[in-house]
Amino acid sequence: MRIAFAGTPVFAARALEALHAAGHTVALVLTQPDRPAGRGMKLQPSPVKQFALAQGLALAQPQGLKLDGRFAAEAQAARAALQAAAPELMVVAAYGLILPDWTLKLPPRGCLNIHASLLPRWRGAAPIHRAIEAGDAETGTTIMQMDAGLDTGDMLRVERLPIAPDESTAHLHDRLAAQGARLIVEALAQLDRGEPLPATPQPAEGCCYAAKIDKAEAAIDWSLPAATLARRVRAFDPAPGAHFTRTASEGRTETIKLWRARPVPGQGQPGEVLALDARAGLLQVACGEGALQIEELQRPGGKRLPARELLAALALQPGERLGG
Fold it and tell me: Which residues form the Formyl transferase N-terminal domain (predicted)?
């Protein structure tokens, strides 16, 4: 099938790779403009762009797609490129830009979206993070016929996936990316065989909005229950990374990232170090309800390390209060 593809991060690149490998003609790839990243803040191409360039695929990187918007000239150029590509269908995965009505109507077979949630449970930008943060027991992938709403279109294929009790966003993301890539290939194969994809309208109830993760959310609020904080630690791994602060004896404040922790019984003032044994790697901190046993940490400029390898260097003291 002749398709266009719109996506930006690794999640989308996995789907593009699978579609290309399945023999579909990718006539045009849309991805977001290069963004500064890394310590040097140099412009970096998206994973989707990297794959497109490696395969010699036609590429467009408009800053916007609204024909009457701030980037109208770029939108007009993107529309011309899409018209010239003449795709039968567009596949969209974590593109990051809103597709206006003209985009949805341009391909004769419309636009299919790969969404990492059991819709309508988590609509929006961060469904993987929010599912873990909320303590969901399962998630999955929905292949959806796009419409003008935010992740509101009819569901064409749905597959469930259990969330492991200790799973991070990093691990779950990779499993969902593989699932989404497989499902979109299966969906297009079904269309190629002349078999329609049964459309199921999304139910009105059970909808939640998965807002984009704000860096401020990653600061540990010790007044929250330990179980809530443990879920946030997993949800914010690998980015932005949950963190807390502590003030050393010389008055210097250090921000420490927290990568692995579990709730345990305990009582004290929120943020209070309740139990500490550097040799055993034991660090328990009181929360609003229960305590958090911290198992993996990272100091600024350092590597992720088991708690037992950092506690001696941190020189924490029992009764010390940690900040958020």
Answer: 1-188
Reference 146, options 199, 80, 74; nearest CA is: 199
> Binding site membership for (6S)-5,6,7,8-tetrahydrofolate: which residues?
117-120
- HSE of 271, CA atoms in CB hemisphere, 13 A: 15
Residues at the annotated binding site?
Answer: 117-120
- Please report the domains of the chain, with CATH numbers, ordered by start residue: 2-210 (3.40.50.170), 215-314 (3.10.25.10)
Owner of token pair 């003609």 = 25
**Encoding tokens for residue 4?**
């266009």
Instruction: Find the helix or strand (DSSP H, E) in which 262 lies.
Output: strand 253-264
- Residue 130 has φ and ψ, to the nearest 5°, of -70, -30
Query: What does pTM read for this prediction?
Result: 0.94
Q: What single-letter DSSP state applies at residue 39?
A: T
Cβ atoms of 157 and 140 within 8 Å: the answer is: no
Task: Enumerate residue ranges in the chain where pLDDT < 50.
Answer: none
Tokens matching residue 223: 């007044």
- CA dist list (Å): 320 to 251, 275, 286, 306: 14, 10, 11, 20
Query: Of 191, 188, 2, nearest to 88 (Cα)?
Result: 2
Separation between Cα atoms, residue 269 and residue 253, nearest integer Å: 20
Per residue in 83-105, pLDDT (tens digit) is 999 999 999 999 999 999 999 99
CB distance 86 to 27 below 8 Å: yes
The one-letter amino acid at 211: A
- Strand, helix or coil at 178? helix
Residue 282's region, left for phi above 0, alpha for psi from -120 to 50, else beta, is beta
pLDDT tens digit sequence for 157-180: 999 999 999 999 999 999 999 999
> H-helix or E-strand containing 114?
strand 111-115
